[in-house]
Amino acid sequence: MKNRIVFIFGIFSLLWMAVLVRAAWIQLIPDSRLDKIKSQHFQTHLKLQSRRGSLYDRNGRELASSVTSYSLFVDPAIIERPSSTARKLSKALNLKVNEVLPKMTAENRRFSWIARHLNKEQADLIKSWKIRGLSFVEEFRRVYPNGDLAAGILGQVGTEGHGLEGLELQYDSELKGEDQKLTLRRDARGRPLLLSGAAFVDRPEGHELRLTIDMDVQHYVEEILLKYLRENYADQTFAVIVEVASGEVLAMASQEADSNGRAQKVSLVSDTFEPGSVIKTFTIAEALENSLIAPNTRINTLNGQMRIGRRLIREASSDHRWDSLTVNDVLAFSSNVGSTQIGFMLKDTGLRKGLINFGFGARTGIDFPGEARGKLHQLPWRQHLLSNVSFGHGMTATALQVANAYATIARDGVALPLRLVQAKREFGNQDWVKNESDGKLNRVLSEKTAHAMRVLLAGVTAEGGTGAAAKIPGFVVAGKTGTAQKVNPKGGGYMADAYLSSFAGFFPAHAPQYVVYVGVDYPKGKKKYGSQVAAPLFSEIGQYIARSQGLTPSTVSEKNYLAKIVREPQQLDLLTREDELPNLTGKSLRTVLRMVKDLDINVRARGTGTVEIMFPEAGTPMAEVKELRLILK
Amino acid sequence: MTLFLIVFVQTHQRNAGYQFAKKSKELRDLKEQAQILNIQLARQLGPSKIQSLATGRLALKKVKESQVIYLSGDVGEGAQ
User: Fold this and answer.
1) Contact of A393 with A484, CB cutoff 8 Å
2) What does pTM read for this prediction?
C-alpha cells in the first residue's frame, strides 16, 4: 500500500515537474512559432492621423488651427433598438429622426456615418449610453477663430482633411504632414505595454505657416471695402496692400455685392480686367527709360481728340481740350491723347516689351492657387490697339499684377515676386524658417527713371491732379487714378457709363513703404470716376496703415518734393497783349497765373482743380482783357 | 530564483507601462485642451471682437481724421 502511494506520488511529482519545465521552456526559450501566435494575439497596428499645422498672421496671431473631433458611425448589423436609438441621437445631435433611422436599418451594410466632427461633450454623452453598434473615430476639425476674416486667402479644408481652396490648398502637403503608422503590443484589456515605446509618441503634426497678412489691417480693409461697396452701389470692391521692401502682401480682399458682406473669394488673383489709366504710368516709365521723353517734354495733345483711322481717341471728359501737355501733366491730368502719343513713340514692340518687363502677361509668382496671367496681344498691333494699350485698354491684368508693377517703381525699379507666406516651422521646432522666394531680383527700370516716376506720380496727387483725393495727411503720396470702361458682356464694345474705377499708389513717395491698389467695380452712384471713388478709398486705407504701422510722417513736404519736376522754360507759356486769349480749359490755376504774370490782368477764380469755365471766351484779343474769371472744378 | 526575478521585473515593467500610457493620454488631453483655449483666446482677441467690445461696451468711437495730429515738416530734402 505504502509503495503504491509513493509510486503514485512519484508519478504526479514527475508530471508536475514536466509541467513546470515545459512552462519554463515556453517562457524562457525563444520560439518563432509561439512568437508569431503571440503577436497575432497582442499586437495591433495603429494609424495616427497627423494634426494639420496651424496658420498664423505676421504678428503670430492664430488664423487657423485644428482640434480633435469625434465622428460617430453605426454598424447596422449589430445596432441595438434602432428606433429608440435614432430618437435619442436625433435629440442629442439636433438631427431629424428620418435622417438617422435609415442609416441604422440599412441592410447588408456594416458601416454608416451618423455625424462627423462632434465635440468632446457630445461624444462623451453618447458614449455614456453604452449602446452596442455605435462607435467613434477621432478626426481633426479645422477651426478659424476669426470666422470669415481673410477667408478668401486662407481657403477651406474638406471633411476628409484636404485643402480645397486658398493657402490650405496651396500648402496642403506641408500643412497636413504625414500620418504615422505604429505597431503596438497591448494586453488582454487593450492597454499598451511599456516595451512598445511607440505608444507614447506624440501625435504627428504638419508644418505651421506664418503668413505675411496683418490680421488688423486685413479686418480694416474688409470692412472699408464693404462700406464703399454699399455707398457706391458697386458690383465689387477690392484692395491689395504690399510691403515694398519684401513684396509681402499685408492684406488682400474683395467684397462682392451678392456675398452678404462675407469676403470669401479673392478675385484679385484669378480675375482679369482692363485696368485703364493706371497703365499710363508704365507707358511713360518705359518711354523715360528709353530716353524718348523727359518729364518736361511737351506732348501735342491735339485739343483732346485724336483720329486713328476711323476711330476717335478722346480724353475722359469733353472739357479736357488741351493743346499740349508736359509729360508730367499727361500723367497728372490722365490724358489719353498724350498717352497715345507716347505709346506711338515706343511703338508696339517697345510698349509690349515694357509691359512684359513690369510683369504684365505673366504670373506674379505669388504662392496662391489659380493665378491668372492676364492678356497682352501678340505683335503686331494695329495703331488703334497700340493707342488703347497705352492707356490700359485692349489688355487685361489682375489686380496683383498692377500692385506688383507699382511696387517695382517704388522699389527703385527692382521687381520681386509677391508672397503670402513669410515663414514655416516644422512640428516640434520652435524656430521659424524664412520662406525664401525662388524668384530672382529683376531690374526693370534704372534707379534714375524710377525716381523720376515717383516724382511724376506724386504730381498726380498734388492740387489740380486727378488723384488729389488720395492724399494722406502727413505723407507725400505717389499714385495714379484709373477709370476703365467696362467691356460689354453681351457683345462687342464697352458698356455706357460703366467703369472700373481704381487707384494705385504708394507712400511715402520719397521713401516708399507700402503699395496700395484699390478698385471699385461698376459704381452706380453719383460718383463714378477713379478720382472720385477709388482715390478717397486709397486715402482712408493709407491713413489706417500709417497709424497702425506707426509710420513717421514725412519730413519732406509735397511742395519740396514736387520741386524736382523740371518744368519747361516759362517764356513758352507767357502771353502778350498782341496774342489772342487761348483756351484755358483744363489748365490749373497755377499755369494760368504763370501765363498772364507779365500782364496787368486781374484773375478771379472760384473752386479748385482745373479750369472748367472761363470768361471772356477763348479767342478774345488780349488787349481787351482786363479781368479773367475762371471756374475751376 | 532567476525565474522569480524575471517575473518580478516583467510585472513592474508592465505596471510602469500602464502608468506611462495613462500619463501620456493625460498629456495629450491637456495639449488638446491648451489648443482649444488658444483658439478661444484668438477668438477673444480677434479684431472684430475687440471692435465690438470697444464700440459696444466701452462706447468708443472710431478715430476721426481731425483727432490725428500729423507733424509734417517743410524742411527740405536734406532732412529726408
Assistant:
1) yes
2) 0.80
